[in-house]
Specification:
alpha/beta, two-stranded antiparallel ribbon, eight-stranded parallel β-barrel, 12 strands, 428 residues
């Protein structure tokens, strides 16, 4: 018998005994000190009770029945649901970058003309019997190249008609002799008649002869000039033997030299102001800069009405545009002109000095040494050899590296020996 059933039976017996003796108890207080009961297995058990009032016990109450309650089971916890995993998003593909186009390489620019150049005459017709580039001069090792001057009207005789045969011949001869060329297209009185027929003109006198040119700011003149320069650049800029191009504009005489030796009042009446002349000069410079993207460009400088403004401002514009490809030439190259403040071109010499430091400068001697030493010596009576050494020493010391020497000097045996042995090696 299980312990649980035994306990229930024992409790029932005690309850019956208690009820039987209840009548004999008075209704007053009672004291129960001990009550022996028999257990179902024959053993005895003393139960102790407490003192109390009979009123607390009801005689009519039946057996005490235990109340059985099933223990409230612990609630089974709801299983924690496994979290539904978020779907792994498909990775957004990185956009394929557009390939960066390779930049178009800038064309390689040519170095400045350098060394001894042969300065000869002018090509005024396409009917050439010989070239300026000559084997007996340019074939000499110490002669680097030639200055080639060509009349505008010789290569562009009528509107839209161009014949560059003279230039092609000179460059072909230069290529055979591995010689360099500096090219100058004469303007002003050498411009074609069809240009002067359409532009506003200005009359002047040059070396005692009457001459006419377009005003440099005239729109028709600039239109025709732009076409000429553009065609020249398209055909010859890439030629490896072309090492320099002189810019020219509608100035008096040959158009290459900057000066205007005319009456300033008459020129002003024709529309001249310093700003207007400067702007027209820079406009032409821009034509050359655009057409000749790889070839150095040279500007010859002079005073204009005894002032240096045009030369200074023009070089600033040229250097800002072309940098080291902007060269300055002085076609009055003599040390007395560079050192004596009383000389006409002294006010602009500092522009050439600046060019020797920033880019390059060219010395075209004011005359030849062999027959005109008096143009250099200011009366000292130098010999041709003394004159040559004095001038070459001065200008090489000043930073000049390109000299345009006249044919007479390059054919003089005594001067040729000095140039070959003493100066050509310094200009390499």
């Amino acid at each position: 018998m299980t312990g649980f059933i035994k306990s229930v039976i024992a409790t029932a017996v005690i309850s019956a005994t208690f009820s039987a003796g209840a009548a004999s108890l008075n209704d007053n207080n009672f004291t129960r000190k001990g009550m022996e009961t028999n257990n179902l297995d024959g053993s005895t058990q003393v139960n102790f009770s407490r003192s109390g009032s009979t009123a607390a016990i009801s005689p009519a109450r039946g057996f005490w029945r235990p109340i059985f309650r099933r223990p409230t089971p612990e609630p089974t916890p709801e299983p924690t649901p496994e979290p539904t995993p978020e779907p792994t998003p498909e990775p957004t593909p990185e956009p394929t970058p557009e390939p960066t186009p390779e930049p178009t390489p800038e064309p390689e620019t040519k170095s400045a003309p350098q060394g001894l150049f042969h300065s000869a005459g002018i090509i005024s017709s396409t009917d050439q019997r010989a070239t300026i580039v000559r084997d007996d001069i340019n074939g000499e090792e110490h002669v680097t190249g030639s200055l080639v001057r060509v009349s505008w009207k010789a290569i562009n005789p009528s509107e839209g008609v161009f014949d560059f045969t003279p230039l092609e011949n000179e460059l072909a001869a230069a290529a055979e002799l591995d010689a360099s060329i500096s090219l100058a297209i004469l303007d002003s009185k050498e411009m074609p008649q069809y240009v002067m027929d359409q532009c506003e003109t200005f009359d002047y006198t040059f070396r005692g002869e009457a001459a006419t040119t377009c005003l440099p700011w005239d729109s028709y003149y600039q239109q025709f000039k732009a076409e000429l320069v553009s065609r020249l650049g398209a055909q010859f800029d890439s030629h490896p033997n072309l090492r320099g191009v002189y810019m020219s504009y509608a100035a008096m005489s040959n158009g290459i030299e900057m000066h205007w030796r005319v009456d300033e009042n008459e020129f002003t009446a024709a529309g001249y102001t310093p700003d207007r002349l400067e702007q027209s000069y820079n406009d032409v410079m821009d034509m050359y800069a655009e057409a000749f993207a790889t070839t150095p460009i040279l500007m010859e400088i002079h005073t204009v009405f005894d002032e240096s403004h045009l030369a200074e401002n023009a070089f600033n514009h040229c250097y800002d545009t072309l940098g080291s490809r902007c060269g300055v030439a002085i076609w009055w190259c003599a040390s007395r002109m560079a050192t004596d403040p009383r000389q006409a071109e002294y006010p602009v010499y500092h522009v050439a000095q600046q060019a020797t430091e920033l880019s390059f400068a060219v010395c075209q001697t004011i005359g030849n040494f062999s027959t005109q030493p008096d143009r250099f010596d200011s009366g000292q009576g130098w010999t041709p050899e003394e004159t040559l050494r004095n001038e070459m020493d001065f200008f090489i010391g000043e930073g000049f590296k390109n000299f345009e020497i006249w044919s007479a000097d390059l054919k003089d045996e005594s001067l040729m020996t000095i140039l070959e042995t003493e100066y050509a090696p310094l200009l390499k």
